[in-house]
């Protein structure tokens, strides 16, 4: 098989930039799809398919039950996979095309279906996209950090690069997707048409497939079943319940699970909220580009500096500082967001905070999994990363569901737009509340937890000394 990865098989080696960037490419690809789901899916269902926001939100919430179980199943599958390509990359190769096909079908709700059958269709397609395909992309992708290298600095670097490329995916969607909608739209008056979404998604899905394949052929899995060569796992194949138990006993992994769930809840609130903010407060959907790009471009820029900060201050404190800056950004937008310059500045702060914390997140997860393996002897790389993927998707799914419930409860009705009528004032209040204040509180809570009780670097170093590995 053709490989563009760093030639060395030493799991402690320094990786070349070709492999680092190749790893990041896949994140850009699948996160473009995530960005469309997070930002435009609810608007598509309410304003194009004309479905009820509360019902859609309930279906998404129910789907999270299946989604959480699928992460554990796929994590176990990754742990047990044996192929010439390793444990993770083979699944990226197998699933990128089915992922694209299912995504296209999710945004193609047949207009001739009875209303009840439309909801059944959405439930099935949403689960095929998220519960099956995205899980089989994300879990192996995140596992690659632990399987590619056991070098702590390289893990931090890969985690940061992953976040840079994920952010690049967001920037691409923020900048180009509305334009693509308008290009393919069947109406001169609105971008929100079925033809617009179908054409735009054909373009984005094709790009996603190419980027994921770049990751497949430019990375290499070097790390064997144990976190260190001198420590052997209790068995070659760890039973799922044993792996789950070991993770739940790992306080640092549990903390990262909670933090990931919260931050992705926040991300979906400002992503969906940004579209509705543009539509019903600025009365122009195109305004979502500068709102989201102020966050994404700042996030993209700051992550080029975070590796240098990481070496000086450590992953924990950069992550904690990021949460503090995010909190200030949401607070400032809520209190002083009365002019465009102030709103841009506050969203730049959010982007800087998200970049600082996001760049450290997967490196911290990998270190937390290593800590658990050294402490218990249980190899749970796949299940540990499955839990991380589950936390992200639970945050995104629950955030989407709660947003829809609140909007429905506030009186939102997509049909009012077609009649040229304004939404109730309660809807405007709900949008402001979910875009500013809920995210602010959640970021502040994570910041305090990380600052007070997250001593992973200290405890991991202590364990390594006890095992004679320091």
Which key terms come to mind for this protein?
470 residues, mainly alpha, 16 helices
Summarize, please.
With 470 residues, the protein is mostly helical.
Description:
It is built from 16 helices and no strands. The radius of gyration is 22 Å and the shape is globular. The protein has 470 residues and is mainly α. Helix 1 runs antiparallel to helix 6 (194-218), helix 3 (89-106) runs antiparallel to helix 6 and helix 11 (315-336) runs antiparallel to helix 15 (425-453). The protein has helices at 17-48, 53-80, 89-106, 115-148, 152-184, 194-218, 240-248, 251-280, 288-302, 306-313, 315-336, 340-376, 381-409, 415-418, 425-453, 456-466. Residues 226-236 have low confidence and may be disordered. Helix content is 77%, strand content 0%. It has a single domain (18-219, 231-466), classed as MFS general substrate transporter like domains (Growth Hormone, Chain: A), CATH 1.20.1250.20.
């Amino acid at each position: 098989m053709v490989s563009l990865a760093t030639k060395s098989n030493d799991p402690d080696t320094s990786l070349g930039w070709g492999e680092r960037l190749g790893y990041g490419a896949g994140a850009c690809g699948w996160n473009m799809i995530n960005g469309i789901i997070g930002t435009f899916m609810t608007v598509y269902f309410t304003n194009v398919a004309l479905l009820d926001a509360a019902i859609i939100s309930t279906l998404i919430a129910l789907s999270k039950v299946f989604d959480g179980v699928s992460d554990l199943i796929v994590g176990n599958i990754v742990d047990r996979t044996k192929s010439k390509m390793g444990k993770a990359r083979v699944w990226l190769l197998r699933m990128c095309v089915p992922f694209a096909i299912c995504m296209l079908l999710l945004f193609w709700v047949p207009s001739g279906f009875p209303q009840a059958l439309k909801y059944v269709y959405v439930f099935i397609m949403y689960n095929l996209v998220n519960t099956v395909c995205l899980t089989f992309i994300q879990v192996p992708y995140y596992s690659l950090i632990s399987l590619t290298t056991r070098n702590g600095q390289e893990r931090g670097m890969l985690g940061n690069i992953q976040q840079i490329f994920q952010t690049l995916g967001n920037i691409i969607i923020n900048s180009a997707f509305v334009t693509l909608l308008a290009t393919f739209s069947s109406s001169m008056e609105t971008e929100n048409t079925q033809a617009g979404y179908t054409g735009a998604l054909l373009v984005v899905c094709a790009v996603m497939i190419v980027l994921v394949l770049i990751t497949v052929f430019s990375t290499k899995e070097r790390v064997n079943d144990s976190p260190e060569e001198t420590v052997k796992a209790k068995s070659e194949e760890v039973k799922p319940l044993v792996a789950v138990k070991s993770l739940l006993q790992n306080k640092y992994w549990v903390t990262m699970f909670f933090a990931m769930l919260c931050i992705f809840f926040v991300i979906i609130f400002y992503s969906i909220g940004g579209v509705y903010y543009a539509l019903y407060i600025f009365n122009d959907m195109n305004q979502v580009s500068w709102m989201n790009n102020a966050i994404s471009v700042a996030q993209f820029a700051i992550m080029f500096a975070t590796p240098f900060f990481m070496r000086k201050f450590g992953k924990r404190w950069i992550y904690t500082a990021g949460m503090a800056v995010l909190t200030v950004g949401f607070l400032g937008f809520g209190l002083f967001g009365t002019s465009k310059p102030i709103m841009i500045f506050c969203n730049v702060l959010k982007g800087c905070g998200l970049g600082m914390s996001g760049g450290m997140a997967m490196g911290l997860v990998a270190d937390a999994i290593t800590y658990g393996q050294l402490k218990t002897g249980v190899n749970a790389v796949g299940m540990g990363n499955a839990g991380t993927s589950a936390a992200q998707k639970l945050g995104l799914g629950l955030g989407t569901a709660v947003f829809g419930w609140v909007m429905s409860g506030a009186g939102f009705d997509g049909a009012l737009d077609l009649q040229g009528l304004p939404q109730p004032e309660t809807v405007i209040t709900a949008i402001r509340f979910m875009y500013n204040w809920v995210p602010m509180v959640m970021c502040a809570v994570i910041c305090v937890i990380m600052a007070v009780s997250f001593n992973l670097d200290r405890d991991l170093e202590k364990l390594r000394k006890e095992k004679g590995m320091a």
